[in-house]
Write a structure and sequence with these properties.
Order of helices and strands: HEEEEEEEEE
Strand content: 35-45%
Number of strands: 9
Largest sheet: 6 strands, mixed
Mean pLDDT: 85
Distance between the termini: 81 Å
């Protein structure tokens, strides 16, 4: 009788083992939208991220973004740090949602007399210490008016 059901059992085991769990202990993030690619001195960059986290413990976690300057051929007036990290606010446990990141306009360029070209690398860490993969924005340009 076991031989009769063996092919069915093998098929069930294969289907179960091949199914992918879409949620992971490690948070995942993706860029949903950015409010532009060219910014004047007074415009903030607003990035909307989507997240997924199996445990839903991203609230009270942290978010870090790293500035990657793509042109460094002009004199730097403001020597700004290239990374910013901050705590995410507390919010109810949820396995998916959105995070809005606002990068101040002054962080785009270290010399307001020259156009600057940058991108940002962003990652999050949940309360348990699990770190997401890093997402990278497209090239963003600070335009002198």
């Amino acid at each position: 009788m076991l031989k009769r059901y063996l092919p069915f059992l093998v098929l069930v085991v294969l289907v179960i083992s091949c199914s992918k769990d879409k949620l992971s202990t490690k948070p995942s993030i993706a860029i949903k939208s950015i409010n532009g690619t060219e910014f004047t001195l007074l415009q903030d960059v607003v990035i909307t991220l989507t997240f997924k986290d199996k445990e839903g413990d991203l609230g009270n976690g942290s978010l870090t973004y790293l500035r990657n300057r793509l042109n460094v051929y002009y004199p730097v007036i403001n020597d700004l740090a290239d990374s910013v990290g901050y705590a995410l606010p507390e919010f109810p446990k949820t396995t998916s949602g959105e995070i809005k990141v606002i990068i101040p306009s002054g962080f785009l360029s270290e010399n307001p007399q020259f156009n600057d070209t940058v991108n940002f690398k962003i990652f999050v860490k949940d309360v348990a210490g699990n770190v997401s993969d890093t997402v990278t924005t497209p090239t963003l340009i600070s335009v002198v008016e």
